[in-house]
């Protein structure tokens, strides 16, 4: 299988042929423009002396030999990520380091109001969004700017880019990577992020691909649970709403399965039940799950209620199915009345009527704190992807 090299580069620098870089003797870390050796598959290998991203079992692991001059390093070694495509690619060790860097980014963001970070100065991020977005696009752009980088953006690429003229995603990616150092892609087709990653020679982050996955949302969701509850092992999680079409709940199920003694309750209308592939994956990982039609009963048992909206845009012409599902499960004062005092309510947003506004004032309503955590997680990912730890 051919080897392709993806090179970190600064946008204001020329693009020399990728050649191995020497280590910085003072730190033992690769310099800012370190070469990442990868194969044409979305899951990028990490040298054996670094924490490994674990690809899905349906894809082969890419083995890369560690430099001969390096001995195994602890978790504090510079973590290099490849493309961020799906939640399954992360293991607990990598998650821990991402979360540690996210905590550091909280301090960086607070300090940036008086002194702008220069960590990503000279780097350009392209946000290529074929579907509408508020939080994901703006938090990525804010993350890049908080770290001193710059942004190239298109908000509605499906309508206002050359895609409207019939240009393929692959050709768009080949063009955009010539202008930027990293691409954040949201697309309406499941699997589009994998195609982009296989095409690009710079890092690609999946910001949501149709009903497929949304891995950075899952990262911020798990980070939020850790920050709110104080632990991840032993969590009881209620996933509520549109579970068939919700890429956020799919990614969260994959990621929370990395932890021990997890139980997941699925609460949804019949027309949008969680799909069998997620149930089978959870079973294979030893995660207990249960389907229920009683939201109050589930809420009384859970540490986290993760509510989602019924996504009208995923129903196509089957408006009758949408109307049958909408409004069936609502988080309101009744749910708060049975929810444990330590528990939290989360939502990936935007919401419609599935959480009543009178819930917002309850300290257990964590969804706006959850959205803010997206900034820290995306700052951490951009830093790790472009310059390392």
UniProtKB/TrEMBL annotation:
One GO cellular component term noted in the UniProt record for this chain: cytoplasm
Region annotation (Disordered) maps to 1-32
Does the keyword field hold Transferase?
Answer: yes
Biochemical pathway: Pyrimidine metabolism; UMP biosynthesis via de novo pathway; (S)-dihydroorotate from bicarbonate: step 2/3
What is the reaction catalyzed? carbamoyl phosphate + L-aspartate = N-carbamoyl-L-aspartate + phosphate + H(+)
Name the chain's protein. Answer: aspartate carbamoyltransferase
Listed EC numbers:
2.1.3.2
Q: Which NCBIfam families does the record match to this protein?
A: asp_carb_tr (TIGR00670), PRK00856.1 (NF002032)
Keywords recorded for this protein, A-Z:
Allosteric enzyme, Pyrimidine biosynthesis, Transferase
MF terms (GO), sorted A to Z:
amino acid binding; aspartate carbamoyltransferase activity
Aspartate/ornithine carbamoyltransferase Asp/Orn-binding domain mapped to chain residues: 233-384
Q: Residue ranges of the Aspartate/ornithine carbamoyltransferase carbamoyl-P binding domain?
A: 83-226
Which residues are listed as membrane-spanning? none
Family from the record: Belongs to the aspartate/ornithine carbamoyltransferase superfamily. ATCase family.
Basic residues: compositionally biased ranges: 1-12
Superkingdom per UniProt: Eukaryota
